[in-house]
Design a protein that fits this description.
This protein is of the alpha+beta class. It contains six helices and ten strands, in the order H-H-H-H-E-E-E-E-H-E-E-H-E-E-E-E. Strand 2 and strand 3 form a beta hairpin. It binds protoporphyrin IX containing FE. Protoporphyrin IX containing FE binds next to helix 1, strand 1 and helix 6.
Length: 260
């Protein structure tokens, strides 16, 4: 029993981050100008290091300030995240439950939300099919659920405080509690919301995401600082396996170590 639990935790903790950082590299390499993306992240890292010379390199505070690096990963998780189904739940009520439209879900039925479609919905993400690495650095102020909350990377907020209510005709988002100031702040990689489900959302959202985010940001920041990436002519197509979406296994990305 213990081995079984460790096996699934190992998958949750290691493969998920490997898949995500691989996807991010593929997204960057197949963007129109990978060099410009790397240079923006490089400039961000170097300016942080030079303006805080006494700080220990790569501590949590430094990572929290790397907004472009953070956004490049979040945007890849939006467009090519491996979690295609979000907030999976099992009906526990002995008699099942009946939804507003009469659909009956028996005890034991599994329900969830199609994260893939939500992440590619133009209503929430303009140019939803395009990888825009710095989309979340300064999201335009709007009343859309994923873009309206004052959630700063440095503030450490990890969920958006939206009030959802489901009516027969639509899902409404009452954001009055969170929209008060209208300031534009970045949406952090770890911030979950009804429209960003890569780590799921709600009480059972991934508890390892804070660790994973720092690990992936360290990796991407290191690559941006020390390597150039050869552009790919097109984004290698992801593959479906067991309801999840993963990068292909046979793609080569050529990198070159930068001269100091
Ligand atoms: C990019 C990396 C990761 C992604 C995309 C990811 C995604 C997810 C998702 C979608 C869930 C399901 C939540 C739900 O049931 O609604 C989950 C759960 C979980 N994750 Fe992660 N995860 C990542 C990294 C990690 C790491 C590094 C750890 C541990 C160090 C971890 C530990 C867990 C655990 C223990 C759960 C179960 C939580 C529960 O059932 O309450 N994950 N993760």
């Amino acid at each position: 029993l213990i081995t079984k639990r460790f096996a699934s935790l190992t998958f949750a903790a290691i493969q998920s981050s490997v898949i995500t950082i691989t996807n991010t590299l593929l997204d960057i390499a197949s963007s129109p100008d990978p060099q410009a993306i790397l240079e923006t992240m490089r400039a961000e890292i170097l300016s942080d290091i030079s303006s805080n010379p006494s700080q220990p390199p790569w501590d949590k505070a430094v990572l929290a300030r790397l907004r472009h690096v953070d956004s490049a990963i979040r945007e890849s998780m939006r467009l090519n995240g491996f979690v295609a189904r979000g907030i999976m739940k099992t009906v526990m009520a002995p008699g099942g439950i009946t939804l507003w439209d009469g659909t009956h879900l028996p005890k034991g039925a599994k329900v969830g939300i199609q994260a893939y479609s939500v992440h590619r919905d133009e209503d929430f993400y303009p140019n939803a099919q395009t990888y825009q690495p710095f989309r979340f650095v300064s999201p335009p102020h709007s009343r859309r659920p994923d873009q309206e909350t004052d959630t700063a990377i440095a503030s450490g907020s990890d969920t958006e405080s939206l009030h959802l209510s489901c009516t027969p005709s639509k899902l409404t988002v009452d954001s009055t509690a969170s929209i008060s100031s209208g300031r534009k702040k970045p949406l952090a990689l770890v911030t979950t919301s009804p429209t960003f489900l890569a780590f799921s959302h709600g009480p059972n959202a991934c508890p390892g995401r804070f660790f994973a985010a720092n690990q992936m940001k360290l990796t991407l920041a290191h690559i941006a600082l020390y390597y150039d990436i050869e552009p790919l002519p097109q984004r290698p197509e992801s593959r479906w396996f067991v309801g999840s979406l993963g990068p292909p296994f046979d793609v080569m990305v050529r990198v070159r170590r930068r001269r100091a």
